[in-house]
Amino acid sequence: MGVTVVACALGACGTPRPDLARLYRTEAARADQPPVIVIPGLLGTRLVDPATGEEVWPGRLFSLFDRSHAGLALPVPGSPIATRDLVPGGITDRAAGRDFYGNILEVLSQSGGYVPGEPGTRVTDARPRLYVFTYDWRRDNVETARRLDDFIEAIRRDHGRPDLRVDVVAHSMGGLITRYYARYGTSDVLDSNEFPVDLAGEAKLRRVALLGTPNLGSAEALHSFIEGFRVGPGRVATEYVATMPSAYQLFPHAITQWIVTSDGKELARDQFERDIWRRFGWSIFDDRVRVRIEAAIADPEHAAKHLSALEAAFDRYIERARRFTWSLTVPTPGSELRFAAFGGDCDMTPARLVVEEHQGDSVVRLRPRDLAARHEHLDYEALMLEPGDGTVTKASLLGRHVLDPRIPRHRYANVELGRYVFLCESHSQLTGNITFQDNLLDYLLSADPGR
């Protein structure tokens, strides 16, 4: 016992941690080290009312307990119901006592030697700059990709280098935005089923780190439309989630097995078809949701017009989401950029919904515990859940339609990965993981990052 106590006192019982500053901080920064841009994911940018200066998201602590988060709804084209105008503020570095992006910004500055920069400020020394790209995460990801191009062009002007290539560290949905930008630049290719890859954005990128990016979508995104998006102890109600085009663009890809019967058989159902949503009564087609919408709008005529406009918007957004997911997996001839993927594989993560026959009706179950009856020979935990980070499965991170690495990759699952690192960390806490930070700095700062 005495020996153990002494050993612990000397620090031998603690988990070893790399000294990142010793590993990566040098006396003089490399003059050719490009700037790095950190791109947060869904919920990762603060949203502010420009008229009042009030921060609506995440706002003050008690606002996270709001059960509906009605203030986050986007305007619905054709609806008579007005919504609050919000603009991006700073990054959601910390909220409700939890760190989201503050730690990784500190590591890049203190251990990586990056100096915080702001687009529009001329760079007059050789120190590498660290930029944060904030955006309205509710809006269509193509719109955000265009804003990213403006952001990069401003950095190029500040450096006086029109040919400058930047590095990107993108979390979650931020990775999808970056991948779209690499393939198509500022072009909107979602108006048809043709996806002409021109690599316009790739020409402006050197290295890209994808952190917890759902490259083949996330079943959790379906959950958010069926029961609302969980934020802290509350939820963003599904009728408000349905106003956000980006949320649809997180749906599982068509090549994935996303829904099965209660006896484990795959169902051929299209998650991007409105009729499926109507049949199961999901999202705005849930009678309880429609009653809630009508109750919230005093004028019955306005309520009816709003519902009609919301249905029309749903149709447009879900079709664009279908095309968005395909646009990210078609082949990219001539591409030389290979992404580094970092993500979790220790938490059991939603991967499939189950349709169960219950009292003469087909009912969708989101979690194993929701099933009313079970087939004894089936492991429902294994059927519905897969290893991941709690939000994104390992298979989706790797752009694989199945988890088993022995099965060949689907021919329409083209995600250009050059290296990947797996972590034991939850989705929202990935940026604070020391293994991620160590490998990220090595990837960004090494002259030859290897695999």
Name the features:
451 residues; alpha/beta; Rossmann fold; seven-stranded parallel sheet; three-stranded antiparallel sheet; 19 strands
Structural notes for this entry:
- With 451 residues, the chain is α/β, with parallel strands linked by helices.
- The protein has two domains: 19-67 and 85-218 and 326-346 and 410-445, Alpha/Beta hydrolase fold, catalytic domain (Rossmann fold, 3-Layer(aba) Sandwich); 235-325 and 349-385, no CATH class.
- The chain has helices at residues 2-9, 20-24, 102-110, 141-159, 173-184, 219-227, 238-241, 245-248, 274-280, 287-296, 300-327, 380-384, 394-397, 434-445, and strands spanning 36-39, 45-48, 55-57, 87-91, 94-95, 98-99, 115-116, 129-132, 166-171, 205-211, 229-231, 234-236, 259-261, 339-344, 347-350, 353-358, 361-365, 385-388, 417-423.
- Strand 11 and strand 12 form a beta hairpin.
- The longest helix is centred in the C-terminal third of the chain and has 28 residues, at 300-327.
- The model is unreliable at 1-12 (pLDDT under 50).
| Order of the strands making up the biggest sheet | 7-8-1-9-10-14-19
CATH homologous superfamily classification of the largest domain: Alpha/Beta hydrolase fold, catalytic domain
Number of helices: 14
Structural class call reads alpha/beta
How would you describe the shape?
Answer: globular
Mean pLDDT level = 92
Give the strand content. Answer: 15-25%
Main pleated sheet: 7 strands, parallel
CATH topology of the largest domain: Rossmann fold
**Which architecture of the largest domain per CATH?**
3-Layer(aba) Sandwich
Query: In the CATH hierarchy, what is the class of the largest domain?
Result: Alpha Beta
Please report the total strand number as a whole number: 19
User: What number of structural domains do the residues give?
Assistant: 2
The helical percent reads 25-40%
Poorly predicted ranges (pLDDT <50, ≥5 residues)? 1-12
Roughly how many Å is the radius of gyration?
A: 23 Å
End-to-end separation in angstroms reads 44 Å
